[in-house]
Design brief:
Blueprint lengths: L1 H22 L11 E3 L6 H9 L5 E7 L3 E8 L8 E9 L5 E8 L15 E7 L4 E6 L5 E3 L2 E3 L1
Parallel strand pairs: 2-9, 5-7
Antiparallel strand pairs: 1-6, 2-3, 3-6, 4-5, 7-8
């Protein structure tokens, strides 16, 4: 009987506790299938459009493809490196419109940067026909809706 009790205490209790600890862990959720973010996640036809598009002007540009509406957000021509266009948040509002918040980041004063003309951009795509609002967030948290230019 002692042997069974010892076996229970040393082997079964830790095994049960290990299973209980892992049971409550949250698994990361997969990004939704109806939005793609970032150049590397784009279908080839969208990637080709992005590569060929003039990025020297600041703005939001939209082009429809077979199953996707692609949006290119550009910061325009910058005199140095260190600039970045970043999608800060993307989600549906109550009316099933994608709200995409964009941040334009600039290099810190004194930061070492590439001394070359750069054209920062970000791209995302949603299922064709899905309404989208692109908003620019500034460093103080103010929000400005950006005008989308369709091609």
């Amino acid at each position: 009987m002692k042997r069974i009790t010892r076996c229970f205490v040393f082997f079964l209790i830790p095994l049960v506790l290990t299973g209980c600890i892992g049971a409550g862990a949250q698994t990361p959720t997969k990004p939704p299938d109806d939005i793609l973010i970032g150049f590397d996640s784009m279908p080839d036809e969208v990637a080709s459009w992005v590569e060929e598009h003039d990025k020297s002007e600041r703005g939001v540009f939209k082009k429809s493809f077979e199953t996707w509406d692609a949006y290119l957000v550009t910061m325009g021509e910058q005199r140095t490196g260190g600039y970045l266009v970043k999608i800060d948040n993307a989600g549906f509002d109550s009316g099933k419109t994608w709200i995409v918040d964009v941040v334009f980041e600039e290099p810190e004063p004194g930061q070492i940067v590439t001394m070359a003309l750069t054209y920062p951009f970000e791209v995302f795509a949603v299922r064709q026909g899905t309404p989208v609002t692109v908003r620019l967030l500034n460093e103080t948290g103010e929000v400005t809706e950006m005008t989308v230019q369709s091609e």
